[in-house]
Structure formats: C-alpha cells, structure tokens
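Title: [Solved] ABC transporter ATP-binding protein 3D structure

Original question kept below for reference.
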Amino acid sequence: MNDFAIDIRGLTKKFGENIVVNNLSLQVERGSVFGFLGSNGSGKTTTIRMICGLLMPTSGTGRCLDLDIQNDSEEIRSRIGYMAQKFCLYEQLTVIENLRFIGEVYQLSDLDDRISEQLKYLRLENYKDRRARDLSGGWKQRLSLASCLLHSPEILFLDEPTAGVDPKARKEFWDYLHEIAIEKGTTILVTTHYMDEAEKCTNLAYINQGNLLYTGTTTGIIPFSKIISYVSDIQRQQQAWMTSEIGRRYPAVTTSFVNNQLRISSRDQEILNEILERYPDSQFTRVAPSFEEVFIGLIS
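Solution (posted by the thread starter after getting help):
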C-alpha cells in the first residue's frame, strides 16, 4: 500500500484559455490532517474536484487511495466523505432522520449501530429528535460531520467547515478531526481561511492563482517563507500615523495591529533596517512572524 492517500503529479486544469490549476504536484500522507490553503479563486475547489474524480484534468496524473483519479472515479467517491461549507442536509428532518437517509443511500447493513456510534461520538444523542433547522451552527456542523463518517470513509474532504461557527465549537470540531485521524487512521484534507486553524494541521499546501507556493510541514512554512517581523510598543495614538507613513514610503512592507502593538513584516531585511533607522524612537523588536504575515508575504 502506498504511504500517500493522495498523490498528484503535474495536475493542470484549463477552462478555455484560463489556467485554474497550473502543474500542481503534492502528496498527502495517510492519517494526516492536511491543510489546503489559498484565497478565494486560488484553485482549491477545482483541485479537490479533480482528486475526487468529479472533474477531468487537462493534463497530469493522480492517485487517490491508490486509485486513478481519471479511471476509478466511482470507486474513489464510495471511499471518501465530503463536507461542504454550507449545511447541505435536510432542514425539516430530525438529526436521526438525516443520518438514516444518508445511511440508506450508502446501503449500510449495520446502519442502526453506525448511527448510534456517531450520535455518541459527536455527543448528538440529546439532539437526535430535534429538527436540523432548530440546531445552532455548531451542532449543524457536528451533524454534517456525523453524516460524512457514517460509511467509514478513508479520506474526509472538508471545505471551510467552521465558517460562521463560534470559537468554542471550532476548537471542539478540530479536536474531533485529530481524534478521527489518530484513532481511525482517516486522512483529512481541510480548506480554511483561519490562520489559527492552519496551525492545527500536520501538513500544509498553499496555492495562489493555481500555482503551488508551498507544501510541507506546518512548522516548516515559517522558515521557508523567509518573512522577517518586528513589533513596536509605540503609543496607540501614534500607530495610525506610523502605519500611513510606512505604507506610503514602503508599500511592499506589511503592517498590522496585534495586541495593541504595531507589527511590520517583509522578506527584505534592507528595507526593514531602513525603517528601523528612520524611526529610532519606535522601539522595534524582532519577533517570530505570525502565520498571517507568512501567508500574506508569500503572495506579495
């Protein structure tokens, strides 16, 4: 068995003359929680559709669960789970009715046992007779995840699954993802715009306008980016003026406010040194770059 749940090589997708995914190669290890990151329109969804066998690539090759993405699409779809950003189950049905419907679609012979397992695992037992429309965002999210897990998929594809969910529910959801990956060996590929969620992944791929900018471990992206960051303790009343000044003089430098402090970042140490010399009273101190600074820096 291949160590990679997903292994794509030179994958390209064109729509007319528009290149949406450009010569993309990446490998996703089995049992990993893999973050697939990029801005809207970067090519993430198109790539996932090709991996799942829902869209034919213009060129390139790929395997998902040791199956060819072009020739074995039906079998691939039977062995994966997909959770969309928008709640896609039936609002008028109860929790248990939704799960039973999904289970019958997959023709699961031990459906009652599987439903009981998911209700218990995701703590949905007290909500099983509640209509989906009456659930909060966090509980709808758990119901969606339960429906994806019913048929014991080997890979879960999650498309921005925590959008619009409160921080506590987001944390609990990510705890479940890691439990699933560790205890069941399920491979999880998740798209997200939250930088704190990117840090929770074991590995990452970051694409922009269809091009792969980085793939590797979560800890490796900061040194790879070569982003350098400084923080200043100047008074809040001065921060707006300083931000405007730096933006006017040094448009390639990223500025941000975090914890009432002004941060600047760039890959160009010479420009940053010039800022430090120009504003000696600003008391800039070098710090580790944040994930947000890294991701902005990689596309600037």
